[in-house]
Structure formats: structure tokens, C-alpha cells
Amino acid sequence: MTTMPMTKEPYEAIRTAPGNDWFGVRLVTAPRAAFRPAPGMKGPCRPYAVRNDVMVLLKQRDGWVTARCVGQNTGKGRPIEGWLPAGDLAAPTPPGSAPPGSAQP
Questions:
Q1: What element of type H or E holds 16?
Q2: pLDDT of residue 94
Q3: N or C, which end of the chain is more exposed by having fewer CB within 10 Å?
Q4: Cα–Cα distance between 36 and 85 in angstroms, integer?
């Protein structure tokens, strides 16, 4: 539970304070993104993340990222980690703002 309102910058603390083993945070934009054992490798359909799941990014290579997800839907709260296509993820933006790189109204 947070003690401060986070409506204007909900992810700012996470986005600007990378940890020792991660470099960023992204949201899944694909309806379903299957974790792969290696970049580009065909993998099983499970485990997978769904749209709007929050991913912590660990590594990046050739249009792929190693991502970690911890949440209610990740198998009893255990972290899930694997490679995902970078194109299936996007940086979180505060409500009412345009995503990075898009035209402002």
C-alpha cells in the first residue's frame, strides 16, 4: 500500500531508480507474451504474461529482453523470468499523457 497519491507519476520511483540487477520497467502490450528460454527461440506457451503485466528488465539483446514478472498471476507469487520480444513491451506512462514518441494533441 502506498502512503502518497500516485496519480500523476505512478511508476516514476521504479523508472528512475534501477536496482543492481535490472535496468528498466515495461508493461506488456501484447494480449499474451510467452517467456522463451533464449532470444528468438520458439518456446512453450507457458509461462506467459498478459497485457498490462509489469515487467522488470534484466538484459537486452537483438530486439529481445530478459524480463522478470512477480505478481498474483505468476504461480503463487513466485517470479517468472525469461526472454520476451522487446516489441511486446512499452514504457509505462501516467494516465492522460501520451506515450513517449507519440504526437501530443
A1: helix 12-16
A2: 73
A3: N
A4: 9
* Residue 90 · residue 99 · CB < 8 Å: yes
Sheet holding 54-61, edge to edge: 80-85, 64-69, 54-61, 24-28, 89-90
Q: Is residue 88 very low, low, confident or very high in pLDDT (cuts 50, 70, 90)?
A: very high
How far apart (Å, rounded) are the C-alpha atoms in residues 74 and 97?
29
Give the Å distances, CA to CA, from 66 to 26, 44, 53, 99, 101. 11, 16, 15, 22, 23
All structural domains of the chain: 22-90 (2.30.30.40)
The mean pLDDT value for 79-102 works out to: 80
